[in-house]
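Hey, resending since the last one bounced:
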Amino acid sequence: MPEQRFVSKNLMSTKHIFQISSELNLPSSRVEATVRLLDEGGTVPFISRYRKEATGSLDEVAITAIRDRLKQLRELDKRREAILASLQERKLLTDELKKKILEALTLTALEDIYLPFRPKRRTRATIAKEKGLEPLAEIIFKQGPLDLGKEARKYINAEKEIGGVEEALAGARDIIAEWISEDAEVRSELRKLYFEKGIFKSKVIRNKEVEGAKYKDYFDWQDPVKTVPSHRLLAVRRGEKDKILSLKVEVPENDALHILQERFLRGKSESSEQVQMAIQDTFRRLLAPSMETEVRAMTKEQADHEAIKVFAENLRQLLMAPPLGQRNIMAIDPGYRTGCKVVCLNHEGKLLYNTAIFPSEPGPRLEEATALLKELCQRFKIEFIAIGNGTASRETEDFVRSLGLPGDIQILIASETGASVYSASDVAREELPDYDVTVRGAVSIGRRLMDPLAELVKIDAKAIGVGQYQHDVDQKWLKESLDDVVVSCVNQVGVELNTASKQLLTYVAGLGPTRAQSIIDYRNQKGAFKSREELYDVPHLGSTAIQQAAGFLRIRDGVNILDASAVHPESYGIVENMAKDVGCAIQDLMRDEKLRRKIELKKYVTATIGIPTLEDIYQELAKPGRDPRDNFEIIRFKEGVTRPEDLTPGMKLPAVVTNITNFGVFVDLGVHLDGLIHISQISDKFIKHPSEVLKMHQHIKVTVLEVDLPRRRIALTMKNK
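The structure tokens again:
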């Protein structure tokens, strides 16, 4: 109950602030300010962008780290309180035990302390205690002078199924073994041993060699626990899950037994021999399985962290891919049997026309497709033709290029990743209710060319497939991390309030799905927003949400010119004063660099607004609502190379990066199968991670090393050869 809390919330908060400050190497004042803003409902994008004075200009990475660590520590507090309450209720809580529990800094340490007191299922030790053998175990454990046989005979009891001396001693050893296994210091020492000297070992399960050929590299594999690469561990665990591999963790048994003997073995008496037997039993039966479980869990968590980090960074680069912008686009989802689905979109992404063509069929259908595409390009003033990179994409590209279209119409291959997921989603059905999945998929291909961010937020980030082992990692943790990335990207770019989809608005700081829907409903009923001030008229949109969101929402051609910028409404007064002091209108200040140079930022510093925010405002006046993404580039794949069978070792090709992992980079060559540049083949210089050299969507040149058609693998290099 609240009134029985064992430690005050304020005390814990202060303790957490100093702990986080120490762990992240940040001044405690900045951590404290960030925690306060988070507790007040502040979002990471808002705090990093509009509260720089309070946090000392901490960036999103630091603020996210503070938020996540604070959450972990508070979860630890909840567990600590639950344990203390349980012990108090069972009248087991002593001052010494309470002190240990309050001082535990990690969940592992906390659980080690609680282990001897945790309510247990029936074990060999509890059965022995029920038979009354605990006093015998205590005497033996002291390892003093003792007539062991005489002492053990006192406990022979037919009713309790203790038929002789050996049965009595065996029960006592079971009790001792459990005592040893629950010793917090021993568990800590053994844990260190497992992480320092532990070895992961995997073997192929008998008669699974053919079925599990893709795991061949792990049929007889081992790697140290402390250095095992995350992608290898996840691969082996997947093989174990698929029942192809067996996996275990081993340590030198003598080293483990030495730790136990050093702590518990005294002398060489008959009792000591019993303790020695208990030590061997507790390690093999209790501690080794327990430690292996812990090691597997902890290394899995570390591997998950690394994999999620890779996925998140890839997703960030994908979402921040250069947008083509508002153009009239023809998007083609290529195919053979069912033909190519063709859609025409206007510069706002609105579907104007759809049809299917069959350019792979000679005769009338080919002639029909030729005439139709030419006519559509003219009718809808097509500027770009985007061809999905799936089946028949290169053949379709060859067909389109053969049409002799006007030179100002650009043709390119676009990624289809996630388009099929979108086409079958509730979002797609809501946006395009009168069309089937093939049309929706083609529309998605075209729209993502215009604005990858606006279109990809409609798809579950996990379905985009730009990570490694995303289905094997902790799904809740993965979702939270990827959501953070989407939120960061959406708010970094900014959102046009009058055209944004519900999905895009959902990720704006302070909104979420319910408030985003309220904005959509208001927009549908009242028409376009004329100012940010109008947000206060939207139902279910409170002042806190508006404060968090307003700076990231843009209104082009609104009443106030600043509504199209990243200047927060709370700072409009400052800009008005700047314009007044310079003697011009705000519009003039934004257009004329000479006028802006007259601004003396120090003049506008207040108790809450400092130079960092003023510098942001100044930069925003120079480029209001600027898009931080790079300029769009078109890649042209090698002509005549459309299938893996067309590749030969030594061939040099253009490629585009599609996925970055710890072990290498996958690239699109335009042959319907991505090739792999292993990390050792990326640079002539040593690199720790591919991201040091490459990024998503980067256009590069590669050389083919090997083509393994049976295993569908293409090995590439970027090295100078």
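The mean pLDDT is 91.

Sorry for the duplicate.
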